[in-house]
TrEMBL record:
Residues 1-144 form the N-acetyltransferase domain. PANTHER family: GNAT-FAMILY ACETYLTRANSFERASE, SPERMIDINE N(1)-ACETYLTRANSFERASE. Signal peptide: none annotated. GO terms for molecular function: acyltransferase activity, transferring groups other than amino-acyl groups. It comes from the Bacteria. This is GNAT family N-acetyltransferase. Keywords: Transferase. InterPro entries: Acyl_CoA_acyltransferase, GNAT_dom.
Amino acid sequence: MACRWIPTPESNLLWGGPLYRWPITVEQIAEHQQKEEVSSFWLVSDEQKIGFIELFRLSEGEFRLCRVLINEEAGRGKGYGKQLVQMAIDYATENLSAHSLSLAVFEKNTPAIRCYESLGFRVTGRETSVRSFNNEDWPLLRMSLSSG
């Protein structure tokens, strides 16, 4: 079954990077979620799924936030992304003993960058490799949050 939240190949790359094949399916996501190092979460309001986020364990105490997505039907620009990321930060620090959280974000995704910065993430570098879509290069920024 195709995932309606990701309606185009461009949004598929923006959201999931090269992990998922277009068109993305619920089965692809479910298969990825079975990995031991993956913890995923839904943001739900009034029984409607509003957002999705994933924590990927890199090593003991180190996690990467991945595949942050807000359902367009729920409406973007309402703070759901910030709420979802904060939920993942809280879960990682309180339940997984995370001391370091990082993420990669496309440089062109300025709303996401602003959201992450508002929660304390800081740009730590730029990836040397870039992703391409329709002959356009998409550089990636690395961001991190350390709890001390």
